[in-house]
Write a structure and sequence with these properties.
Layout: H1 2-21, E1 29-31, E2 44-48, E3 54-57, H2 60-68, E4 74-77, E5 88-92, E6 95-99, E7 103-106, E8 109-113, H3 119-123
Antiparallel strand pairs: 1-4, 2-3, 2-5, 4-8, 5-6, 6-7, 7-8
Length: 127
Amino acid sequence: MLKVFSFLLIAIVLSVITACGFTTNETKWDSFNNFITKGEKNIIELRDGKTGKTVEIVEEEKVKEFLLLFEKINLLKVSDEEIKGYQYLANIGSDQILFFNKMIKINDQYYETDKEVPVEKIKKYFE
Protein backbone atom coordinates (compact mmCIF):
# COMPACT_ATOMS: atom_id res chain seq x y z
CA MET A 1 0.00 0.00 0.00
CA LEU A 2 2.85 2.37 0.85
CA LYS A 3 4.47 1.65 -2.54
CA VAL A 4 1.22 2.46 -4.36
CA PHE A 5 0.82 5.69 -2.38
CA SER A 6 4.47 6.68 -3.04
CA PHE A 7 4.10 5.88 -6.74
CA LEU A 8 0.90 7.91 -6.94
CA LEU A 9 2.48 10.86 -5.11
CA ILE A 10 5.53 10.79 -7.40
CA ALA A 11 3.27 10.65 -10.47
CA ILE A 12 1.28 13.67 -9.27
CA VAL A 13 4.43 15.68 -8.49
CA LEU A 14 5.93 14.86 -11.90
CA SER A 15 2.68 15.82 -13.62
CA VAL A 16 2.62 19.19 -11.86
CA ILE A 17 6.27 19.86 -12.69
CA THR A 18 5.74 18.89 -16.33
CA ALA A 19 2.63 21.05 -16.61
CA CYS A 20 4.50 24.04 -15.19
CA GLY A 21 7.23 23.56 -17.75
CA PHE A 22 4.75 23.81 -20.59
CA THR A 23 3.02 27.00 -19.51
CA THR A 24 3.60 29.80 -21.95
CA ASN A 25 5.07 33.09 -20.97
CA GLU A 26 2.33 35.45 -22.13
CA THR A 27 3.75 38.24 -24.21
CA LYS A 28 1.69 41.26 -25.08
CA TRP A 29 2.45 42.84 -28.42
CA ASP A 30 0.67 46.10 -29.13
CA SER A 31 0.50 48.50 -32.06
CA PHE A 32 3.02 51.37 -32.17
CA ASN A 33 0.25 53.95 -32.57
CA ASN A 34 -1.34 52.84 -29.29
CA PHE A 35 1.74 54.12 -27.46
CA ILE A 36 1.52 57.66 -28.82
CA THR A 37 -0.48 60.10 -26.71
CA LYS A 38 -3.85 60.63 -28.37
CA GLY A 39 -4.61 64.06 -29.76
CA GLU A 40 -0.98 65.21 -29.81
CA LYS A 41 -0.01 64.24 -33.35
CA ASN A 42 -0.07 67.71 -34.98
CA ILE A 43 3.66 68.39 -35.33
CA ILE A 44 6.56 65.97 -35.47
CA GLU A 45 10.09 67.11 -34.79
CA LEU A 46 12.71 64.70 -36.17
CA ARG A 47 16.41 64.61 -35.35
CA ASP A 48 19.05 62.57 -37.15
CA GLY A 49 21.20 60.72 -34.59
CA LYS A 50 24.30 60.85 -36.81
CA THR A 51 24.25 64.48 -37.93
CA GLY A 52 22.08 66.19 -35.32
CA LYS A 53 20.08 67.78 -38.14
CA THR A 54 16.50 68.58 -37.14
CA VAL A 55 13.39 68.90 -39.30
CA GLU A 56 9.77 69.59 -38.44
CA ILE A 57 6.83 67.90 -40.07
CA VAL A 58 3.88 70.29 -39.78
CA GLU A 59 1.66 69.53 -42.78
CA GLU A 60 -1.22 67.32 -41.67
CA GLU A 61 -0.80 65.00 -44.66
CA LYS A 62 2.94 64.53 -43.98
CA VAL A 63 2.28 63.86 -40.26
CA LYS A 64 -0.22 61.12 -41.21
CA GLU A 65 2.25 59.74 -43.76
CA PHE A 66 4.98 59.55 -41.11
CA LEU A 67 2.74 57.78 -38.59
CA LEU A 68 1.61 55.30 -41.27
CA LEU A 69 5.24 54.12 -41.51
CA PHE A 70 4.71 52.47 -38.12
CA GLU A 71 1.10 51.37 -38.48
CA LYS A 72 1.94 47.68 -38.91
CA ILE A 73 4.77 47.59 -36.36
CA ASN A 74 3.94 45.94 -33.06
CA LEU A 75 5.88 46.54 -29.86
CA LEU A 76 6.74 44.31 -26.94
CA LYS A 77 7.86 45.90 -23.67
CA VAL A 78 11.37 44.78 -22.72
CA SER A 79 13.60 45.49 -19.77
CA ASP A 80 15.86 48.51 -19.96
CA GLU A 81 18.54 48.15 -22.56
CA GLU A 82 21.99 49.67 -22.46
CA ILE A 83 21.84 51.29 -25.88
CA LYS A 84 23.85 54.39 -26.55
CA GLY A 85 22.84 56.79 -29.27
CA TYR A 86 19.96 56.42 -31.72
CA GLN A 87 19.33 56.49 -35.44
CA TYR A 88 16.45 58.95 -35.28
CA LEU A 89 14.58 60.80 -32.56
CA ALA A 90 10.99 61.99 -32.95
CA ASN A 91 9.16 64.36 -30.66
CA ILE A 92 5.45 63.82 -31.20
CA GLY A 93 3.48 65.98 -28.79
CA SER A 94 4.68 65.06 -25.30
CA ASP A 95 6.18 61.75 -26.47
CA GLN A 96 9.87 61.32 -27.24
CA ILE A 97 10.66 58.32 -29.44
CA LEU A 98 14.10 56.95 -30.24
CA PHE A 99 14.37 54.65 -33.24
CA PHE A 100 16.83 51.79 -33.65
CA ASN A 101 16.72 48.91 -36.17
CA LYS A 102 14.63 46.46 -34.12
CA MET A 103 14.05 48.53 -31.01
CA ILE A 104 12.09 51.66 -30.13
CA LYS A 105 12.29 53.70 -26.96
CA ILE A 106 9.16 55.67 -26.12
CA ASN A 107 9.80 58.15 -23.34
CA ASP A 108 11.72 55.99 -20.82
CA GLN A 109 10.56 52.52 -21.91
CA TYR A 110 12.24 50.22 -24.45
CA TYR A 111 10.23 48.06 -26.84
CA GLU A 112 11.27 45.30 -29.18
CA THR A 113 9.67 45.58 -32.63
CA ASP A 114 8.25 42.68 -34.61
CA LYS A 115 9.52 44.27 -37.86
CA GLU A 116 12.47 46.40 -38.84
CA VAL A 117 12.00 50.10 -38.14
CA PRO A 118 11.80 51.80 -41.59
CA VAL A 119 14.87 53.98 -41.03
CA GLU A 120 15.45 54.45 -44.77
CA LYS A 121 11.98 55.97 -45.08
CA ILE A 122 12.61 58.24 -42.08
CA LYS A 123 15.85 59.35 -43.73
CA LYS A 124 13.86 60.76 -46.68
CA TYR A 125 12.40 63.46 -44.44
CA PHE A 126 15.89 64.99 -44.21
CA GLU A 127 16.41 65.26 -47.97
